[in-house]
Structure to design on (302 residues):
């Protein structure tokens, strides 16, 4: 499951709009309002050392703030539990990045600021210290020579369902699905998201995320198909959601896959009675054109 989240989140956060939402919504720092996202560049290199490849995945954005370059690092942490010394690991990452800049730029006089974000989607509570000084016994004795480093944590399960619903953007919907999965609630949120989002590519990446969850058995096929229908068209969404909910209840009792086809057949019949074209019925139910046409064929008498 780590690989699914790893690749999926990297693809999502490689989209500038989704990255912008992550920072603007979840990084509560005064300088965030001054970030110039029109001058934002995703770096292709990874600076995660081999030692931490199994722990982290990384994304680095170069962005302008008040006329100067700032690097924002997003380290994705998908282990089941928090790692106590993650602050030390992240400091090592930043040092490796600074070494790269020094070695690749002969005329470099000063190092740019780097803001480290840790994104954690585990189910257990995050307990790792945010400040490196917490991990050093006797740090207070060193005065000005003491190490000062901390990362910015974005801990998905620290946000309540109510908080995420109030935010109502792509990233909060992603967190909602990851931490507080509720089919009916997500249907409503996706309808709203589809209506107000101007960046359709960003929304389509979220739909791709749901598809990967379905393909890896995290959500049911009927649920994903409903999400897909919401994305491609809203006219019959409410009818389809109600039909899926009814069939899901029956499937829980029956415990057989055949029930899915039976349920979609019932929906198809209802749409045929309403005069809907075969192509639309095929798209919304997943049934083949031949199967749908068979539903309209007169039954032969024995």
């Amino acid at each position: 499951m780590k690989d699914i989240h790893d690749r999926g989140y990297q693809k999502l956060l490689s989209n500038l709009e989704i990255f912008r939402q992550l920072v603007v919504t979840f990084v509560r720092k005064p300088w965030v309002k001054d970030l110039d996202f029109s001058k934002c560049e995703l770096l292709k290199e990874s600076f995660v050392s081999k030692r931490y490849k199994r722990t982290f995945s990384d994304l680095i954005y170069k962005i302008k703030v008040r006329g100067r370059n700032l690097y924002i690092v997003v380290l994705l942490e998908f282990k089941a539990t928090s790692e106590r010394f993650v602050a030390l690991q992240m400091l090592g990452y930043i040092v490796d990045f600074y070494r790269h800049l020094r070695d690749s730029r002969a005329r470099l006089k000063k190092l740019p600021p780097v803001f480290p974000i840790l994104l954690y989607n585990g189910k257990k509570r995050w307990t790792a210290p945010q400040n490196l000084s917490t991990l050093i016994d006797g740090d207070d004795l060193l005065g000005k020579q003491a190490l000062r480093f901390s990362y910015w944590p974005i801990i998905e399960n620290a946000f309540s369902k109510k908080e995420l619903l109030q935010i109502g953007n792509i990233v909060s919907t992603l967190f909602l699905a990851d931490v507080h999965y509720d089919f009916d609630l997500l249907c409503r949120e996706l309808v709203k998201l589809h209506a107000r989002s101007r960046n359709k590519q960003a929304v389509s990446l979220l739909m791709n995320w749901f598809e990967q969850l379905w393909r890896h058995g995290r959500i049911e096929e009927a649920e994903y198909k409903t999400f897909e229908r919401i994305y491609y068209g809203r006219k019959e969404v409410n009818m389809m959601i109600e039909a899926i909910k009814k069939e899901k209840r029956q499937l829980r009792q029956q415990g057989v896959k055949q029930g899915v086809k039976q349920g979609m057949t019932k929906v198809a019949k209802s749409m045929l009675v309403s005069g809907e074209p075969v192509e639309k019925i095929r798209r919304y139910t997943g049934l083949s054109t031949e199967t749908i046409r068979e539903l309209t064929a007169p039954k032969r008498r024995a």
